[in-house]
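Bug #77: duplicate submission created two jobs. Keeping one. Sequence:
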Amino acid sequence: AQDAPKRRPTVVCVYYPHWHSYDHGSAWKGEGWTEWEGVKAAVPRFPGHHQPLKPAWGCFDESDPTWSAREIDLAADHGIDVFLFDWYWYSGVRNMQEALEQGFLRAENRHRMKFALMWANHDRKDQFCPDFNKERNVWLPSRHSPRDLERVIEYCIEHYFHQPNHWRVDGRLFFSVYQATRFVEELGGPLQTRKLLEKIDRRLDRANLPPMHWNAMVSRAEDAAVVKEAGFRSTSKYNVLAHDKVRPDLTMSYEDVMEAHRRHWTKMSTAPLVNLPVVTVGWDATPRCRQDVPWPFPISPWANRHAYPYCHVVVGNTPDRFERLLR
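Kept job's structure:
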C-alpha cells in the first residue's frame, strides 16, 4: 500500500486592519489619519535598528478591493490559507471593519483565501504616539452582556457566516476571542457562558449554518480549563515574547523569543484544549512612539513600568531564525 499523503497544516495570518482611513480614526487623530503616519515618521532608535520600514507597495489602502486582491495573491502564492481579521465591536459600535467588508470581501480573487474573525474585545485606547507622561485615553470601553453577544451573532450571520470562504474547522464556524477570560467573566462565568453559546448554536441551526468553533486567546493552562468549561474548543495566543529576558538597553533577543515559544507550547500541551501554536515574527512598536521620547525609553511616570508603546524591541529576528521556529 502507498503511504498516505502528508497533510499540510493550515496557515493563518492575524490581520490588523489599520491601514485605511475610517471615521473613528479621523475623529480621534485627524481627518484621513491611518497607521501609515507612524510608519512614515519612524526613526532608528539605536545602531542597527531596522527603521524606518519602507513598504514596497507604498502606503496603500487595504479597504480598496484592488489593493486587497494584491494582498490575497501575495499571501496565497506563499502558503497562507486564512486571514484572521482583528474585529472591533463596542456594544454595537464598529470600527476598522472596512478592510474586511469593503476590501477583502469585494476582491475579485477572494475565493483564494479563507477568513475568520478574532474579536479584539479590549478597551480601545490611544496607543498611537500618545503623551508619554499621561495615562492612555480610552476611546471606547469594551463590555459584554448576553444581549450584546446576541447582536454580535446576528451581525455576523448577516455579514460573514454565510460567506462561502468563511473558515470552518471540523465543519464549525471559527471565531476567536482575544480577552477570553474577561468575556467569560462578564457573561456570568463558565456555566452561564456555555448556556449562551449553546443558544447561539441553536440560532445558527435555524439560519442553516453549522455550530461555532470558539477559540480563546489565553496564556495559561488554567485559563484553558475555564474556557473549556464555558464551551470553547481550542486556544491560541496573540503573540509570544520573552518578557523576563528584556536587556538593560530595552532590546530582546529573538533567540530568547524562540525559547519562550518552546516553553509556552510545552506548558499549553498540558491544557485540556488543543492549542493552535502562534509563531511571532517580531516586535517593534517604536513607530507608535513620539520621537522626542529618548531611547531607551524610561519607566512611565504614571504606570511605574514600561507602558506600551514605550517598551522593548525584538532584535535578531532574521528569516533564518523565523524558519527554525516554524520548523
